[in-house]
Amino acid sequence: MTNDTGGDVRLSGISKTYGSFTAVHPLDLTVPQGSFFALLGASGCGKTTTLRMIAGLEEPTSGTVALGDQDVTNLPPYKRPVNTVFQSYALFPHLDIFENVAFGLRRRGVKSVKKQVEEMLELVQLGEQARKKPHQLSGGQQQRVAVARALINHPKVLLLDEPLGALDLKLRRQMQLELKRIQTEVGITFIHVTHDQEEAMTMADTVAVMNSGRVEQLGSPADLYENPNTTFVANFLGTSNLIEAEVDTTSGDEIVLRAGGGKLSLPAARCSAPTTTGGKVLVGIRPEKISLTHADDAGSIPEGRNRITGTIADTSFIGVSTQYVIDSPVCPEFEVYAQNIDRDARLVPGTEVVLHWSPAHTFGLDATQSIV
Ligand code: ATP
Q1: Ligand 1: nearest atom to the Cα of 42
Q2: Coil, strand or helix: which one is 11?
Q3: Residue 239 C-alpha from the chain's centroid
Q4: What is the pLDDT of residues 43-90, one digit of tens each?
Q5: Residue limits of the ABC transporter domain (predicted)?
Q6: What is the pTM of this model?
Q7: Does the C-beta of 41 come closer than 6 Å to ligand 1?
Q8: Could you give the CA distance from residue 325 to residue 344 in angstroms, rounded to a whole number?
Q9: What is the distance between the alpha carbons of residues 57 and 68, in angstroms, rounded to a whole number?
């Protein structure tokens, strides 16, 4: 839609304090031009404050905000080539959809707005609704009007602050795909704030996971999920089973650890903890990567897999998979999601089982971090 897409958004040492409270610690972050970028974190972690500093709605305590070659730190919001979509939509109730979208153009004194507004309404698939008032539209449609209105002046960056927070789950999922389609079509940078990990993973090319005013880890959704670097990320994005272990040996690209009298191994590249012999490591494994075998059949488990023993404490059928909670000496309440298996009548609470998984799916975390 626009060829001049502005360049990367670069935050350099940007921070925000309120009195003695630091909402955002000095932060360096580059958002690549044309990417769909998510700031993800729990309530109060500083993601909205970061977004507002990019928008110019909040003055940073230190640091700079640049867009391509332009330092915009001291520019007021209306002079920045960015626009923001808020959760509240903030549509004008007395204006119809066409006029809501046309508003930004008319304010700039643009005389012939028809073609541009129609194009924008097509983009968000609301061409048929132009003459309705906001209250005659569904929540998802109103949200799309808000997006169209924010895009009409061709910002180089669109900031989205929990834009789907007011929608029910089904609509939210539809809108996630819709926003992704719109972003791909317009090709500008979208920076999206959300506390919903599934939302961030579905839409974003790159996710910055924030915790207590800091970016804890930055990466693609798959990378963050497969290779979390901290216990916070391991547990904020999905569920992780964490086993306290001690480094036994390291050889080449393999680390062998002792845990509860047995041994576990993992690729060195997947361990973010120091690996000196005797050092403490938290060994992580996602619930869906684990297989369960009745203890009587343990001989059938292939060589080379990580394995621990346990007792089934609880099972629940959750549609696509069965969830098992397993008590194990190395990890109380070990969670296993087993998919596409015949529900084995023998895997009932009280059964002794062996949990086993590939070392390649195992990750190692610094055990000196607190488990969140
Ligand atoms: P939420 O999803 O709940 O909006 P958030 O991650 O976006 O959370 P922020 O809104 O950025 O968090 O707030 C970060 C911290 O800064 C919070 O502890 C908040 O209470 C505090 N804070 C935000 N604005 C102010 C302000 N104007 N004065 C004092 N403290 C503030």
Answers
A1: 6
A2: strand
A3: 14
A4: 999 999 999 999 999 999 999 999 998 999 999 998 999 999 988 778
A5: 9-237
A6: 0.88
A7: yes
A8: 15
A9: 20
